[in-house]
Amino acid sequence: MAPVLRSRTDPAVAAANAEAMRAALAEIDDLLARVIGGGGSTDSEKNARSVARHRGRGKLLPRERVNLLLDPGSAFLELSPLAGWGTDDPLGGGLVTGIGRVHGTEVVVVANDPTVKGGSQGPTSVAKGLRAMEVARANRLPLVNLTESGGADLPKQADIFVPGGASFKNLTQLSAAGIPTITLVFGSSTAGGAYVPGMSDYVVLQKEAARVYLGGPPLVKMAIDEDADEEELGGAEMHARTSGLADYLAVDEPDALRIGREIVEHLRWRKAGPGPDRAPVEPLYDPEELLGIPSADVRTPFEARDVLARVLDGSEFEEFKPLYGSTLVTGWGHVGGYAVGVLANNGILFSEESHKGAQFIQLCNRMNVPILFAQNITGFMVGTRYEQGGIIKDGAKLINAVSNSTVPHLTLMMGASYGAGNYGMSGRAYDPRFVFSWPNHRIAVMGPKQLAGVLTIVARQKAGEAFDEAAFAPLRDAFEQQVESQSTALFATGRLWDDGVIDPRDTRTVLTLALSATHSAPVAGTDTYGVFRM
């Protein structure tokens, strides 16, 4: 048995931190409720009309479709539910994506929300859909599309036409990789969207509802002067009886979802990873206490081991090099029965931490063990002493190891993520399988005050004696506020820099679901890295 972590929290500090965290979670919960309610608008009355119109056609909402597809009572790990926040795209992007179980098989689900602009695709929905396909590819998970879309959001066609083409490429590449693709069509799937069923392994069309064609009746009339009605041009029965596009014809939505479940069942999909190596054991400490551990002020450090004690099985942690490079906590534990290696920040990264982290990543790859990166990092140390001591080449060793590691990486943004520290701790650009953030998360090149200060120093050096401190102050303050607003967890999740902002109390559950998904693919390390500068 590995050593058990002991809690070091100060109750008074924890209470103040928890109050700030609850306030942040209340904002997240309000936004999630708006997304789940449908409509995609900031106007609640308009949203209600959109939902009522959709229901008036006898149709289910997207999450209702997802619930009927998945095994009763099973979990659904929804991804990027607040994508589009802070942009002029609908909140959530008019798309529901996530991982759930169908007849015990984990699948990636992508469901259009027809209450949001008729399910049309804007920049956020395209990016969110591409991310879901990447999750399916990297983790070897079957993909199920629940399709009802008006196609491209035409006013934004310039922003989606070129990147959107990858959706169809990805579908056929998933199929070529032996990863099943299944599409259930409940309504419109037109123009380029017709290639979603066209490039899927299995296609289910709903009778008297599905419409799949490259060009609708108006376009056909304009292009070739032919009069055609929707059914003969692209109806479900035509595709089932004549064109052969439909493999199954469903009588209604529940029937289509039933057929979709049967398709997944007959796949007889088997995981290629080793799975958990022991029974899960609850931590010794109440997960409720996770609300009070991260500091309300991101500039105030907190003890990473206190987080691990409330996430790891049995609060057990076999720490590696505990006396060396002390601002990077490394070691082994389990989450939900799955073995993991952990790198968790307890301060800034120095040369010693870089060496320690690189060695530990190599060991995890030798052992074929996934890695959890728990980020609360202001970056690598700077200054004459550290530059002369080789911080660049030492930090490069850590980034080299992260970049070339092939075991699954899961990244938890539990605090700050500034500068190259983001890279050395497997930020989004380094292709971790999943990235989840807590509401207190902040991400930028550096902290707002530091960035504003650097801008001031540069301006002062450029202007020399002519520099007017008082006149420059409003510009400095405005820049600091801009950086602050662009560093928040909501700003990051709105741009899909993570896979969702989660309640800290749900961290263990979310990580367990994510680890289970990664084990659908082989879990294999590497012994190949770039040149380490010694």
**Percent helix among the residues?**
40-55%
Q: Which band does the percent of strand residues land in?
A: 15-25%
Number of DSSP strand runs? 14
Mean pLDDT: 93
| Largest sheet descriptor | 7 strands, mixed
Spatial gap, N to C terminus: 36 Å
Low-confidence stretches: none
Total count of helical runs of at least 4 residues? 20
What is the structural class?
A: alpha/beta
Cα gyration radius (Å): 25 Å
Global geometry: globular
Largest sheet strand order = 1-2-3-4-5-6-7
Notes on the structure:
It is a single chain. With 534 residues, this protein is of the alpha/beta class. It is 41% helix and 16% strand. The protein contains 20 helices and 14 strands. It has a 7-stranded mixed beta sheet, with helices on both faces. A hairpin with a 2-residue loop joins strand 9 (328-335) and strand 10 (338-345). Helix 4 runs parallel beside helix 5, helix 4 packs parallel to helix 6 (166-176) and helix 17 (448-463) runs antiparallel to helix 18 (469-485). The longest helix is centred in the N-terminal third of the chain and has 27 residues, at 11-37.
Indicate the topology.
Layout: H1 11-37, H2 44-56, H3 62-69, E1 76-79, E2 95-102, E3 105-112, H4 123-139, E4 143-149, H5 157-164, H6 166-176, E5 181-189, H7 195-198, E6 202-206, H8 217-224, H9 230-234, H10 236-243, E7 248-250, H11 253-267, H12 304-308, E8 318-320, E9 328-335, E10 338-345, H13 351-367, E11 371-377, H14 384-388, H15 391-404, E12 409-418, H16 420-424, E13 434-437, E14 442-444, H17 448-463, H18 469-485, H19 489-494, H20 507-518
Parallel strand pairs: 3-4, 4-5, 5-6, 6-7, 10-11, 11-12, 12-13, 12-14
Antiparallel strand pairs: 1-2, 2-3, 8-9, 9-10
Helix pairs in contact: 4-5, 4-6, 13-15, 17-18
